[in-house]
Amino acid sequence: MRNYILLLFLGFTLISQAQDKIIFDYDAAGNQINRKLCLSANCDGTGYKTKAPKEIAALQEEDLQKFSPDDVISYYPNPVKEELYLKWELVEDKSLVSIYLDDLNGRILQTYNNLAKVNSLNIPFFNYPRGTYLVVLVYNNGEHKTIKIEK
After folding, report:
1. I need a surface site. Which of 27, 124, 142, 143 has the fewest CB within 10 A?
2. Nearest to 14 by CA among 39, 44, 43
3. With bands split at pLDDT 50, 70 and 90, how would you rate the model's confidence at 50?
4. How many domains are there within the chain?
C-alpha cells in the first residue's frame, strides 16, 4: 500500500508539471491546428530543442542561398520568419519582369511587377501562416524559375 501511494504521488507530480510543456499552434483564423508535448527546458514551438539563432548585424554574401551554383539569383533566409530577401544581377538580354508569391494550392498571394531597373526585393511573410510557398520569377523571354520557401 505504501508503494502504491508513493507511485500515485510521483505520477501526479509528473502529470501536473506537464501543463507548462504542452505547446499549441494556431492557424490564421485562430483555430488550433497542432498540439505538441515539449519535454526539454529549451523548446521552440515545434517541441524540439533549439539552437540559439545566428545573430547577424548585416546581411553578408555568404548568407545568401543561390538558386543554382551558376545562377545570378540569391535569397535569404529559408525558412523565412518575417521577410524574404531576394537579390539578382541584371543581365542585358535577360531581365526579371515580375515575381509571384504562390501557395501550394496555386493561389497567387502577391505580385511584384516593373522589376527591370531594380536588383533586389523584400517580400513580407509575417501575414502568412506556416507552410510552403513558391516564389515564381518570370523573365522577359518567357522563362520561369520557381523557388520553394518554407515558413
Report:
1. 142
2. 39
3. very low
4. 2
Residue 48 confidence (pLDDT) = 47
Q: pTM above the 0.70 mark?
A: no
Q: pLDDT for 52-98, tens place per residue? A: 545 555 656 565 555 555 557 888 888 888 899 998 887 767 788 89
Q: Are residues 119 and 78 in the same domain?
A: yes
Taking the alpha carbons of 83, 88, 90, 91 in that order, is the dihedral positive or negative? negative
Specify the amino acid at residue 17: Q
Q: Give strand ranges (E) for 20-131.
A: 22-26, 32-37, 65-66, 73-76, 83-88, 96-103, 108-113, 120-124
CATH number at residue 65: 2.60.40.1930
Verify that 111 and 42 share a domain, yes or no: no
Q: Taking residues 105-125, report their average pLDDT.
A: 89
Looking at the structure, tell me whether residues 8 and 38 fall in a common domain.
Answer: yes
